[in-house]
Amino acid sequence: MGEFTTAFTKTFFVQNTWARSGTLTRVFAEMAEEAYEAYQVEKTNRVREPPEDGYSEKRVEQDDLMTKLGIKSIVFTAMALEAGVFELAAINLGDATTTDYLEKLDINAKWFVVPRLICGHSLAEKGPALNNLSTLIKARNQLVHCKSKPFPGYQPDPESPTGWTEQSMKEVEERASEIAADSRKFASYVQASFPTLVLISLELEALIGNSGPLPGFSKGAKHTRAKRSSLLSNLIGEWRKSHSKYHEKA
Questions:
Q1: Average pLDDT, the chain
Q2: Which of 9, 53, 54, 229 is most buried, taking the most CB atoms under 10 A from its CB?
Q3: What's the pTM value of the predicted model, to 2 decimals?
């Protein structure tokens, strides 16, 4: 009697078309893209720092603009991915499933679980997309729950010609170092913001054949923005290559 091997393969149905009202996923994504692009333009055309103990009004204005653009990029990218994973689940699994089972999960868990429920595979757990997502959500949470800190103030010292105590000067130096570190950290958060959306979109398209409610960023994908700068187009091309290289090694 011959041996028979039977393979059972589950068939997953992925929605390629859908219609929903009230969706803002792509609006948020476009706002994130515009802010990130403008941030990169300012970063590329940085105003020169003033000399030590000097002041540059243009540099201060640019710093302020880059802070605003960075915040927009972080927050709107997070909003796009939050709305996007909800819609991805609702489109392919039904609104009831999304409401009953997925609402209590955080956004990181949703982006890991939802694709698996749809097609049997998750986004790469240790891949750049989910790693960036963790950084993005950390940054978003810090902004949403922003807490200021006191800055060491002037403390009169009759014996000091400058009027500053040694302790107060030390505290000011320490706080200034913390501010510089926070600034560098914020810049790294911005750098990981919009690229997260691009990487997740590429991962999703590789898994289910389309980018779902997210904009598509694969080669040849159409985008709704009237004009995308060569600077951002080149960056997206680099992220596309890094995505491909990661999966070639995996």
A1: 86
A2: 229
A3: 0.86
